[in-house]
Amino acid sequence: MTVLRNDKNRDGVGLETSEIETHLGVQFKTEPISTGFNFERPPKESIITPAVRKMITVCVVGLALLVIVVGVITLVNIAQLRAEKAAQEEAAKASEEVKILPEPVGPAESLPKSELAAADVKKADADWVRATAASANISVTALEAYASAALTLEHEKPNCGIGWNTLAAIGQVETAHGTIDGAQLDSTGRAYPRIIGVALDGSRFTATPDTDAGRYDNDRVWDRAVGPMQFTPETWEKYKRDSNGDGKIDIDNIYDQSLAAATLLCTIGGDLREGGNWIRAIAAYNPSVAYNNSVAEVADRYAAIAAG
Predict the structure, then answer these.
(1) Cβ atoms within 10 A of the Cβ of 122, count?
(2) Which long-range contacts does 213-219 make (Cβ < 8 Å, 24+ apart)?
(3) Are 21 and 144 in the same domain?
(4) Are residues 10 and 126 in the same domain?
(5) DSSP, res 196
């Protein structure tokens, strides 16, 4: 028989099932009681659908690519900053090696009238010089020297294509347009005190034993770069010219040195409108790669100022 279980005696004391079965002489059958209710919970629907999963994948991949791109850009910027810093340090180092000697007068050669007449020097427009000098923060004297030299070479060698900004860039990198260490250009373009570089004794630059018996640089052992555009005596002898029409060739005069520099660059580089030729010409002036980069950077800046 089937008996509903009540596991308590009359005194309310709980009994074991085996004791009840013995007492009554029956054996209980236990059956599950159906309540009519289903307590199983329905499965939850996942909120991560295939579309959402795909979107998450795309976002993760995109984020990874963004991190990679940002990393590459950062590395490139760091490399550029290091290169620029190296170029600036090299240029600063070169400037530190230019010293002022307290000698107000240097050598100036008189030219035969025939040679003077052969130099057909062109003059830059005065209004343009004043306006551009103010914009570029260059003295009128220095800019007139650069522009006149470029115009003269444009007349003499029209296929050269040298620009005033290249000469101005060299003047800036070499001696800050003749103003390094307190030097100044007088009304004729002469640097005072004289600007004379360190001895080229091989300690930092190519050793260049004396070639002028100290005539230009006052050094009878080693050559030194001289003047606002820093010509060595040997190079000056090859390219020296009179640009201001005073009948003299003066290594301390920015007009004469600018024309000599333009002549050197056009002679060695040829058509300076070609990038490779321009680089080769500047390398002849100074073989340092950092120097070449510094001159190029300043030349571009001056060209942009003039164009703006």
Answers:
(1) 15
(2) 215/107, 216/106, 216/107, 216/251, 218/101, 218/103
(3) no
(4) no
(5) E
- DSSP code of 229? T
Q: In sequence order, what are the residues at sequence separation of 6 or more whose Cβ sits closer than 8 angstroms to the Cβ of residue 223?
A: 199, 200, 208, 209, 210, 211, 212, 217, 232, 233, 234
Amino acid residing at 102: P
Q: Position 266: which residue type?
A: C
The tokens describing 276, both together, are: 């490779």
Domain count across the chain: 2
- Domain residues for the domain of 23 are 1-37
82, two tokens: 């290091």
User: Residue 162 has which token pair?
Assistant: 């040298």
Mean pLDDT of 232-258: 92
Kindly report, residue by residue over 68-88, the tens digit of the pLDDT.
Answer: 877 777 776 676 566 555 545
Cα–Cα distance for residue pair 205/193, rounded to 1 Å: 24
The pTM of this model reads 0.65
CA angle, corner 159, sides to 167 and 174, nearest 5?
15
Longest dimension (CA), the chain: 153
Mention every residue, 6+ apart, whose C-beta is less than 8 A from residue 124. Answer: 143, 144, 147, 148, 151, 164
161 occurs within a structural domain: yes
Cα radius of gyration rounded to whole Å, the chain? 44
Peptide bond into 193 cis (omega under 30): yes
6 located within any domain: yes
